[in-house]
Amino acid sequence: MKKTDWPIRWDLLLRYRLIETIALWEGRLTTNHICHSFGIGRQQASKDINTYLREVAPGNLVYDRHLKGYVPSSSFKPVVTHGEASEYQDLLAQQQNLNDSLAELELGMPGNTVITGPGRYVAPETMRAVVSATRYKRLLKASYVSLSRPEAAESVLEPHSLVCAGNNWHVRAWCGSNREFRDFALSRFQDTPEALRQKSRYTAQQDQDWQRRVTLDIAPDQRLTAAQQQIVARDYGMKNGSLQVETRAALAPYVLSQLGITFDRNHPDPLVQQLELINPDQLGFGSKREQALKAVAGL
């Protein structure tokens, strides 16, 4: 890719995303937000806002003299963000991480606490080897354990994608021993994997479950009362009592797991489960159903 092929410089894109996120979710943007977040002067921050309005999203913001800041216009439409609350939540989480490291840092964000649980441990040398093999499409020699097979087994993998599923990283790879694409948790690699010089023969294009897109039809658990179902539907912004979530078939079990849904059995208490998958048949795992379940469960 040539330098001129990229429409917006990375540092400017981050500033534009901050502008859009703060304006949408806090309702008021000032140059201080940009100055404190990126360590730049007020003149440069003002220039960033004007460039955003001129070249990126004309008409998205208007200046409110009473609030002494920019507010979203009636025609506001996200351009460099998706307009989702999770983007603002991520911004708050980043502030908390920075504040934990630099106590004197003040980004002007509201008081907040983001709960983070412990992630599975991945050794840096393991990540480096997996990243190298994945990026350069090379074979990965690795020793792997699982709860269903605690004895370490050496395999030659052909990885094509890294996936972060909540607190767990895994790599999607062709497994020569099992002659199929599988998920391998990075925390389960023993010793240090080795990225070999040989090129992979199997790629993401040959991974059918990776290429196949599915739409998960999510609805409130039908065991709840009508009033309870309405509350759950509102929680997730459902329309007509359902929510469509599009994802890769290979990643569908992880999406369902994050929603507290298991497609092998319901939780006995609907107040705990709250959601259910309306169209489990369209996942189409067939004989790979057990493997998908084990992957999510970490077996």
Summarize this structure as a short list of keywords or feature phrases.
single chain, 3-stranded antiparallel β-sheet, 10 helices, alpha+beta, 5-stranded antiparallel β-sheet, 299 residues
Weakly predicted, low-confidence segments: 101-105
Can you list the strand order of the major beta sheet? 6-5-4-3-7
Rg is 23 Å
Mean pLDDT: 86
E-strand count: 10
| Distance linking N and C termini | 41 Å
Which series of helices and strands comes N to C? HHHEEHHEEEEEHEHEHHEH
Largest sheet: 5 strands, antiparallel
Residue fraction in strands: 25-35%
Question: So how many helices?
Answer: 10
Please characterize this protein's 3D structure.
It is a single chain. This protein is 34% helix and 25% strand. The protein contains 10 helices and 10 strands. The strands form 3 sheets. It has a 5-stranded antiparallel sheet. It has a 3-stranded antiparallel sheet with strand order 9-8-10. A hairpin with a 2-residue loop joins strand 4 (149-165) and strand 5. Helix 1 (10-26) packs across helix 3 and helix 2 (31-38) packs across helix 3 (42-56). The model is unreliable at 101-105 (pLDDT under 50).
Briefly say what this structure is.
It is built from ten helices and ten strands. With 299 residues, the chain is of the alpha+beta class. Strand 3 and strand 4 (149-165) form a beta hairpin.
Topology, element by element:
Blueprint lengths: L9 H17 L4 H8 L3 H15 L4 E4 L4 E4 L12 H17 L22 H12 L2 E9 L2 E17 L2 E8 L4 E6 L3 E11 L8 H4 L1 E8 L5 H10 L7 E6 L3 H7 L11 H4 L1 E3 L11 H9 L2
Antiparallel strand pairs: 1-2, 3-4, 3-7, 4-5, 5-6, 8-9, 8-10
